[in-house]
Amino acid sequence: MVSDGTAIGVGRGSGGGELAGDPIVTRVEPGMDAVVKVFCTHVEPNFSLPWQRKRQYDSTSSGFLISGRRVLTNAHSIDYYFRVTVQKRWSNTKYLATVLCIGTECDIAKLTVYDDEFWEGVSPVEFGELPALLDAVTIAGYPIGGDTISVTSGVVSRLDILFYIQGFHILCILHDYLQIDAAINSGNSGGPAFNDKGYCVGIAFQSLRQDEAENIGYVIPTPVIQHFIQDYEKNGAYTGFPILGIEWQIMENPDLRKAMDMKPEQKGVRICRVNPIAPESEVLKSSDIVLSFDGVDISNDGTVPFRHGERIGFSYLVSQKYAGDSSAIKVLRNSEILNFNVKLTSLRRLIPAHNEGRPPSYYIIAGVVFTTVSVPYLRSQYGDNYEYEAPAKLSDKLLHSMSHSPDEQLVVVYQVLASAINTGYEYIVNAQVRITMKNLRRLAEMVENCDDEFLKFDLEYDQIVVLRTKTAKAATPDILATHGIHQQCLLISWHENQGLH
């Protein structure tokens, strides 16, 4: 029995050319009444002028009701939300929704509506198992082209692991996904994918551009959805998906395996680097060969068995765990097999892939604007192709740099607001600051507490910015007023929103 009370029809044929006793299986209509339209007013930060916000805009997407009086949709559907409302299929009323949690890495958000009227006459969807290749799927939602609910049908064409993308930002978490050949258009985001038994098997969240391929859409599958839901129920908040804090390479080359003293029957992946702030750094080392994770053997190409005839990247095993869980890792080190138990955590790269919905941090002294680097910041400066357009040093840090402390940030001089006191520094743009204090907050504190005659900032390529301390501090209020800036700084930490005024 599915959630809307429609059962799978199974009967016995008695005529119409069918053999007596043949079962008749009727396709179940999914619970369309559980699919809602999501309206969101967004107010995005302005990374080019971090003390301002961009002009607000509205968007529509899809969502669906689940048990516990909850609504699921995509995280990118409510990114930088100011107000979120939802509307039922047959209703002309928009109900105010409260955002409970946002899982940026998995692109899922959970909402609720406190108005009891909203929940009258509707039943939540029920989740089904992960579908197999060629299983039929139906995407329901409210895409562009009309105001009423729309459905598109297709089949599962691939199950793999993918970098989730949110608002053109490649996220640093790898998750499993379903590839389908049903159309997923703008507005479909957050809508459910139903199987032919009426159960929800995923959430529509992105598609390939038409100039790259036709009818290739991606669906977040039920294991990721259930992990998101159970994480919230278990911890009372979204804590994220853990990752194994290593960079690794495949071991398909026979000479490489021989050089690493691997026996013919041994398979695995080589650790290139271990994140210094990850718990794994206490036991794992560079050039260790990871042979298995939680008792599952890893192949030389980094895959593990999945279902009959299918293999999947071993990061899938990691994604099934929760932050704080322990996992057994078997490694080969100097021809010796070692077994370790490691605690998994959610780690953050030096250049984070997103800002968790928060505005950018900045600090201004004598017109010199300092800020921190993130993927949204890079995109605002260098466009959608920031990986190729950004300076080489920034691109290298984006791809390869690891944090050496949980609160480390990459600080840059974003620009210099022209003034008599900073003459000669106007040309400095997006220059990295070479500091030992690790983050922008510490830099601001050191400047504010400085009693030396001069402030000196060391930049990349051995450039320096030198300002007389008393003059710089005295000139700052006038520079802020000239440029209509009401606050000298906004310093946001990774774990909480704090302002140093």
TrEMBL record:
Give the superkingdom in one word: Eukaryota
* Record bears the keyword Acetylation: no
The Protease Do-like PDZ domain covers which part of the protein? 351-488
Q: What processes in GO biological process is this protein linked to?
A: proteolysis
Q: Which Pfam families match?
A: PDZ_2 (PF13180), PDZ_3 (PF17815), Trypsin_2 (PF13365)
Keywords (alphabetical) are: Hydrolase, Protease, Serine protease
The transmembrane residues are: none
Domain PDZ span(s) in chain numbering: 261-344
For molecular function, the Gene Ontology terms on record are: serine-type endopeptidase activity
Task: Tell me its family.
Answer: Belongs to the peptidase S1C family.
| Protein name as it appears in the record | Protease Do-like 9
